[in-house]
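Justification of resources, computational component.

The compute hours requested in this renewal are based largely on the per-chain cost of generating structure records like the one below. Each record pairs the submitted sequence with a full structure-token output. That output is archived, and it is also reused by downstream analysis tasks.
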Amino acid sequence: MDGIRYAVFTNKSIRLLGKNQYTSNVESGSTRTEIKHWVELFFGVKVIAMNSHRLRGKARRMGPIMGQTMHYRRMIITLQPGYSIPPLRKKRT
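The structure output for this chain reads:
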């Protein structure tokens, strides 16, 4: 399982870092329990809450053909006090 694709760095996600909440985009087919288990195992932290929502892909046009980018899921992971995750790499464009 690939798990987390990349961390999200927006104004809201940077504000949530102060509350020990980390935001990242994950594979759209993965479940909350899979991501929770993967984060606890890989980073060695304790997760107390997870919020997730699916984001639709954006419409893109290539000539006369209309298409869409891939749908994805965004997770907001809340850790127990005293735990932290080192900064994840940004998505390359």
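The chain has two helices and six strands. Residues 32-43 form the longest helix (12 residues).
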